[in-house]
Amino acid sequence: MELKKSALAGPALERLIAASGMSGEEIAEKLNISPQHGSNIKNSRRNMQADIARESLNCFDNPAYSMDILYEFSGGYTSPVLRGKNIEDHRLAFWVNAKQEIAEGLEKLEVTSLAKPPSEMTALEMDGVIAMIDELIESKVHIDNFLMRVQVEYEVSIKDRLKSLKPRWKAKGWLQ
């Protein structure tokens, strides 16, 4: 996967402005861009460049904004923020959805056999693997959205938590 050099970030920037209470000019100043350029990005007349996106992720610890930017620049490889009409924007609703999706993902893990090499699987067995992957992706998306909501409500930075867990993961040999 290659990250995009630029991406449409207007809606994400608009939501960041609304959530932070900052003006477009204040955000442009923090990102070291002209207010005009910030306005063009916000109004989707210009794409946001990767270096500006990187700087914005360093400046603003807003989980929804971070998820939006990462989703756009990764070409959809990361979890999107769930904002659909059937998503209730409350931590307990996200908690219930995450639990349900995790249970469905675990159920698929239990019934899917990965004993055979992919080259020896039947089409039906491969369909089972794809269904398992889909359930695990849905679990991941709901977990990411639940963590986003928890960060907002409880003011616990997921970015800071990840940094604090890194030494533990290195000690366990999970990271180098």
UniProtKB/TrEMBL annotation:
Protein's UniProt name: Uncharacterized protein
Organism per entry: Planococcus halotolerans
InterPro entries per record: Cro/C1-type_HTH (IPR001387), Lambda_DNA-bd_dom_sf (IPR010982)
Highest taxon listed in the record's lineage: Bacteria
An example molecular function term from Gene Ontology annotations: DNA binding
SUPFAM superfamilies, per database record: lambda repressor-like DNA-binding domains
